[in-house]
Specification:
Layout: H1 3-8, E1 25-34, H2 47-61, E2 71-75, H3 81-89, H4 95-100, E3 105-109, E4 114-118, E5 124-131, H5 135-150, E6 157-158, E7 162-163, E8 175-182, H6 184-188, H7 192-201, E9 204-207, E10 220-225, H8 233-279, H9 285-300, H10 311-318, H11 321-328, H12 334-356
Helix pairs in contact: 3-11, 8-9, 9-10, 11-12
């Protein structure tokens, strides 16, 4: 493996797989926050402690008891700004690790379904990603990695509170479970303003595509738990799955309602967006995201044939600023990015036509 593979390939291997309810749920993620008992938390630790933590985690993952042998460690100090930005756009590291942690690192599997961030807000953050609605599978994999690491690491743990973390909102299980959902039906039928407050009342939070503080581009939302204390990991996952299954049902009902009441208008919207993507010479990121959402909806509803549904996952990453500039080989001004974004989308759609024609 090499750094080039992680930053030059837009789609992670796990993204090409089909998952349950993948017409609406793009991905499931479980993240576990853990800290060493003997070191200060990242808010207070020294540079020497930070380096020792990276070394200890790397040693654990190289031990014979650890089954994953296809992992590679990338140190943030060795990466260029654009390379880190691409890893954020692929959801492999957090913006916080990219921007603020000069002594951070990440360990990635070749499939990019496992990401272990080191010295972010906590010493260790184990992240597992699965396609579709597979929260229980993601939890099982993350827990196995966590158990193996705990055989070698003395975690900061309280019998009363559970796992101790830098942020009090993560104390307890230290777990954040989330799903990425595509909800154009609920947006078009103007139901999201009702759905979001209802979700919040259940102890969950709705965020944009890159988590806290980010925008819901292309009708893509991230739904995750807020409560980590007083519940078990499986309780949190089951509660989230129950809510997501209701949202899936509501999204499908909204799409059916659109077909019944506005079929020709919806079909027109889909094909207009397809035309914009296939022919534009300049396109901004927000417009591209919206048109890609319409295209994916058209594929899911059978309006558009011979185009892969994975195109939304792929082009949502390919058209992000960091990846565009990495692809170009250097920094681009906003206008230049808009031109290159349009070119890349046209070329990708032409390739799709050739492959499926």
């Amino acid at each position: 493996m090499s750094l080039e593979k992680f930053v030059n390939q837009a789609v992670s291997s796990w993204m090409n797989q089909e998952g349950p309810n993948s017409d609406i749920v793009l991905s499931s993620r479980v993240r576990l926050a853990r800290n060493f008992k003997q070191f200060n938390f990242p808010t207070l630790f020294s540079n020497e402690e930070a380096r020792e933590i990276i070394s200890k985690v790397e040693t654990v993952l190289q031990s014979k008891s650890f089954p994953e042998n296809n992992m590679e460690l990338l140190r943030m100090e060795d990466l260029q700004t654009l390379q880190k930005k691409v890893l954020v756009e692929k959801h492999l590291i957090s913006p916080n690790l990219a921007d603020e942690s000069s002594h951070g690192a990440v360990i990635l599997t070749s499939e990019e379904d496992v990401s272990i961030m080191i010295n972010e807000e906590d010493h260790i953050r184990i992240q597992c990603l699965f396609p579709g609605l597979q929260l229980k599978e993601a939890l099982e994999k993350a827990s196995k990695i966590d158990d193996l690491m705990e055989e070698h690491i003395d975690y900061a743990f309280s019998e009363k509170l559970g796992y101790l973390t830098s942020c009090p909102t993560n104390v307890g299980t230290g777990m954040r479970a989330s799903v990425m959902v595509h909800l154009p039906g609920l947006v078009l039928t103007q139901q999201m303003n009702r759905v979001i407050p209802a979700i919040s009342q259940l102890g969950l939070v709705v965020r944009g595509i890159y988590g806290e503080g980010s925008e819901a581009l292309g009708n893509i939302f991230q739904i995750s738990n807020q409560i980590t204390l007083g519940k078990t990991e499986i309780d949190i996952v089951e509660d989230l799955m129950s809510v997501v299954q209701q949202i899936i049902a509501q999204e499908r009902s909204a799409r059916e309602a659109l077909i019944k009441t506005s079929n020709i208008q919806l079909e027109d919207k889909v094909f207009r967006s397809f035309g914009v993507l296939a022919n534009s010479r300049i396109i901004e990121s927000k417009e591209a995201a919206q048109c890609l959402s319409d295209l994916r909806l058209g594929i899911d509803m059978g309006y558009i044939k011979n185009v892969s549904k994975n195109i939304l996952n792929e082009l949502m990453i390919l058209t992000q600023p960091g990846f565009l500039q990495q692809y170009a080989g250097g920094p681009l001004r906003p206008h230049e990015r808009d031109i290159r974004r349009a070119t890349l989308i046209r070329e990708r759609l032409k390739l799709e036509e050739v492959n499926n024609g």
